[in-house]
Amino acid sequence: MKIARCSERGNVFYGIVEGGFVFELGKGPFEGGFAGAAEKTDKSHELANVTILAPCEPSKIVAVGLNYRAHAAEFNKPLPEEPMLFLKPSTAVIGAGCKIVYPSHMSRRVDYEGELAVVIGRAAKDVSAIDAPEYVLGYTCFNDVTARDLQGKDIQYTRAKGFDTFAPMGPWIETGLNPLDARIETYLNGEKRQDSSTADMIFNVFELLSFISHVMTLKPGDVIATGTPSGVGKMKPDNTVEVRIAGIGSLINTVAGK
Fold first, then answer.
1. Number of domains observed in the structure of the chain
2. Contact residues for 228 (Cβ-Cβ < 8 A; gap 6+)
3. Sequence-distant (≥ 6) Cβ neighbours of residue 229 within 8 angstroms
4. Same domain, 78 and 48
5. Using 50, 70 and 90 to split pLDDT, how confident is the model at 258?
6. Which band of pLDDT confidence, cut at 50, 70 and 90, is reported for residue 145?
7. Sign of CA dihedral 3, 102, 107, 194
8. 170 and 116 co-located in one domain
């Protein structure tokens, strides 16, 4: 099931995408503390007539560094013994079709990083990896946009990862995905740059959710960006970047100069 957050004539709503239509939900998927309880209504919209927004409004995005074996090798880094966590602000979120703004006033090297993102369905604290699936609403495509030169300069990741527009996600939340072996690809101007499977993750989705929930409470609508495969590279203004995950779809954004 694909759950989209949409806008039509200023009205924002959640809906189920089926074929060329979006069927509105009676209540949002995060309402009432029980993810997935909402059911679709008979009110529908043609998909072509609505604007697809970022699929959720997270209070925080918890991202993971060096979580693919090939990506660690690409940067000549040892495999981490525990997940390497950092945060991206909610103000960085944009949806499919929105522009990534290149912060040329500060950076000369901005990279794409295609990732699988986990959307939390209900509050999670001290959750076991075995129970973790119960706290997941679904999955979406994510681009962990990074000012690589600032990342090296600052050591910590806040500035390099935190610019406005540096967290594109979408186009919707897929509830039926198997996150343990999903193909993930990234294209730059139509040329494939990343091609891997989530099976190459060092820490899988459920291990990450458990680990993070023992550090901080995950709220409904929060997002875990699970790390990127090998093949990261730079983007420039006027480039188009697409993150494609089998079973979800494509997240496409263009890069704009500032």
1. 2
2. 67, 68, 71, 113, 114, 115, 144, 194
3. 68, 70, 71, 114, 184, 194, 195, 196, 200
4. no
5. confident
6. very high
7. positive
8. yes
Q: Is 165 left (phi over 0), alpha (psi -120 to 50) or beta?
A: left
155 compared with 213, residue with greater pLDDT: 213
Report which residue type is found at 1: M
Q: What are phi and psi of 37, to 5 degrees?
A: -75, -20
Query: Would you state the pLDDT for residue 39?
Result: 78
* 99-102 β-sheet, strand order: 99-102, 249-257, 240-245, 183-188, 191-197
State the average pLDDT for the chain. 95
> Is a pLDDT exceeding 90 seen at residue 33?
no
The CATH number linked to 84 is: 3.90.850.10
**Residue 47 shares a structural domain with residue 66:** no
Phi/psi for 12 (5° steps) reads -100, 130
Q: pTM (2 decimals)?
A: 0.96
65 and 47 co-located in one domain: no
d(CA 209, CA 136): 9
Task: Supply the range of the domain harboring residue 88.
Answer: 61-257
Does one domain contain both 249 and 169? yes
The verdict on 80 and 183 lying in the same domain is: yes
Q: For residue range 165-176, what is the model confidence (pLDDT) as tens digits? A: 999 999 999 999
> Are residues 109 and 180 located together in one domain of the fold?
yes
Q: Which of 25-29, 49-53, 83-87 has the lowest mean pLDDT?
A: 25-29
